[in-house]
Amino acid sequence: MTETSFSKRFAASKGDSIEYQGKTVFGIYRRKVHKDDVIRVHFIRSNVAVREGLSVSITKGALVVNGQRLRDIILWMDTTPAGLEIVCQTPKSGAMLHVWNSWDQGGILQSWLGNAAMLIEEKEGSVILRCSDGLGDPEFGDLVVELGFAPASDQVRSLMANVQRRSRVDGRV
């Protein structure tokens, strides 16, 4: 176990990134998104001993997944369809996407505890998140996922015009 857990260090930094073994680690990935931007989710690998997931939320808008309009969603490695696409439905520019790793511990959703953190590798048009769940020593291979980002096509805009608003939906996939 690290001397002081990441969760305590993130709390002391008020959520800012921290340094660990010469690398910058984050508790959350944030990205500005625009109307009808498309996010393509590609899970690369995960810890087989723990059910790993990715929590995604948006401010000033909604996420459209499989025709459902949601404020937040948990994408589980073991149940999320390959190549899942999320469409950001925002009233205007300035919406913020928030992404962090989560895990199931005995049927209880866990996030931001112990040594939960991410290494973030920005690439052109995508980001790779190397996540450490909060269990035990930091291991940034607990969940590895790539998120691809693309502006909306005319086809996506047409589909979004038909998505109904939903007041409350369980956002677990």
Structure description:
It is a single chain. This protein is mainly β. It has one domain (17-160): Jelly Rolls. Helices cover 8% and strands 48% of the residues. The protein contains two helices and 14 strands; from the N terminus they run αββββββββββββββα. The protein has helices spanning 6-12, 154-160; strands at 18-20, 23-25, 29-33, 38-46, 51-59, 62-65, 68-70, 72-76, 85-89, 95-105, 108-111, 117-123, 126-132, 143-150. Strands 7-6-9-4-14-13-12 form a seven-stranded antiparallel β-sheet, with no helix packed on it. Strands 3, 5, 8, 10 and 11 form a five-stranded antiparallel β-sheet that branches. Strand 10 and strand 11 form a beta hairpin. The longest helix is centred in the first third of the chain and has 7 residues, at 6-12. The chain is globular. It starts with 5 loop residues before the first helix and ends in a 13-residue tail after the last helix. 31% of the residues are buried.
